[in-house]
Amino acid sequence: MDSPVFDVLLAVLGGAIRVGTPFLFVSLGECLTEKAGRINLGLEGVLVFSAMAGFAGSYLSGQWWLGVLLAGASGALIALLHGLVCSLPRVNDIAAGIAIMLFGAGLAFYLGKPLIQPQAEQIPSLPIGAWLGADPAGSVAQALNINALFPAGVVIAALMAWGLKNTGWGLKVRMVGDSADAARALGSSVNGVRVAATTAGGAIAGLGGASLSLYFPGSWNEALSSGQGLIAVALVIFARWHPVRCLWAALLFGGAGALGPALQSVGVTGYYYLFNAVPYVLTLAILVWTCSPRQALQGAPSELGVTH
Amino acid sequence: MNLRDTAESIALPVLALAGGLLLFGAFIWADGHDPVQAWALLFRGAFGDAFSLQNSLQRAAPLMLTALCVALPARAGLTIIGGEGALVLGGLACAALPLALPLPGGAIGTAMLLAAAAIAGAAWIALAGWLRQWRGVNETISSLLLGYIAIALFKHIVEGALRDPASLNKPSTPPLAEALRIGTIGGTDVHWGLVFGVVACLMAAFWLGVTTHGFATRVVGGNPRAAQLVGLPATRLIVVACALGGAAAGVAGGIEVAAVHTAANASLIVGLGYTGILVSFVARHHPLAIIPVAILFGGFLAAGSLLQRRMGLPDASVQVLMGFCFVVILASEAARGRLRELFVLRKPPAGAVPAAATA
Fold first, then answer.
1. Interface predicted TM-score (ipTM) of this complex, two decimals
2. What fold, for A4-136+146-290?
3. Are the beta carbons of A291 and B153 separated by less than 8 Å?
């Protein structure tokens, strides 16, 4: 059991959950937003800003759950701005997303300046490995110490899948995303539903931010998020706009992201930067593989611009 | 385009920038700082004296080129935001070429360096355009992902194969020979990169506005259905527009290496590609308008350190300002065509401004 291959596999497995949790929340947020027919590239800004806000909340109050709440609320706020700007006539949601991305990051770096040094109360781990009877000090139990937010993300994924399918709200969101004209004819406010979905998506993505700054890596700095919010957009395409498939996709990407550090820990250091780029390459490869120039993607909301 | 539309095209971004500055002032006021002092410092630090003006122009040069990397594909209908990646690879190609083959010194050698930078950048952005045409991959996402991949490649090579053993704390490639570097213009501190930037913008405006090829590109971007009906080769035109934009961003990286840093290292990755996105959007993807807008934002970047020193504002202040400007600029599109109603008696203020971007 001491072979380096086993260590790497175990680290990738543990890392899939550790690194994948932010991916899960951001992709669920993006999934909800896109179901209503809008793209939010600004989730990258939402993620950075909510990571800062979550860290600040936990640091100032000493309570990790207050930090998580604040992260969700601030994520919703930034996403609300995106939703409102996109509701203006002649505003393109891709361009607005780029603006929100820069805006959220700038705001987070400005307000987060005093937070770079201190340590905040962290989100607790759930010692799944120890519960299952593994040696608590061993590497197996270490790998199975999971972020307490991760089960919450799994529940949100299941609830969202159920809600989109079975509730009136879900029907409304899907209708607005599939045919704005039909929704209008039935008396729904298209912009209202989209703004609500974008805001709720921002709140979910904000939990991903909290998971970055309060669990892994567990501190606040300006290089905290490097494109997770954007990868989420691709993840949602890969998951064919289904929340439960977002969960598998997030774990896959978490594992890819954990590959570099895992190899480094067993002494493979020469390709550190290249292994860290694996999630981006994987995303691009998946996009090339799944997209098609001729037809809309299966499962894509028809009002969505991202797939032509 | 009639005079009124032109006046509106200038007035709208000017008003939006003023709105962005206003919101920025309100933001730092809420944070307990004096907004009037900040505005004054922003403009004094940007254009107040010869030193700061030269600093601003120096910073404007790469912004003009990275803005073209957004503007040219945008005119072909694509939203490309991966200029940072093209810039970084351009800088790397420029630093690597003298290691691969012996170059003549002087203008020819420098031209070869910049050509290498242009090719590297062009290939990278053309790839994003081609992926969209070939597989329907969204070019905004792919160009940004390619940007992250480019930065990883850059770090891998600069800290690995091409690392100069003499660079201890800050991994760099070996410095360029003195004869290959880009010098300053006359008795100023401004390097020739500014001229490259301005000329590139002029050439881009000529290409888009005068040549048939540029016109065809605009048709593809403005009305893909019409382009298809008249049989324009959309894929070729789009890939060429992307390649030209990428070449501009690559040259920006080459100039930064050959004129400022003298070697490829992490100083190259400071977000010039991202600021270029904002410049292009403010200039409404018009190459001539990019020149003054790049100088303005180059000035704000130059004034950032003054805000830090005099007022104790965080170094991200300029980024916050840019964020506000970007959001307001996009929101201002909603007022297009309605500006006259807002100024019923007064003419749009830009009526008095000489029309710098009429062409």
1. 0.92
2. ABC transporter involved in vitamin B12 uptake, BtuC (1.10.3470)
3. no
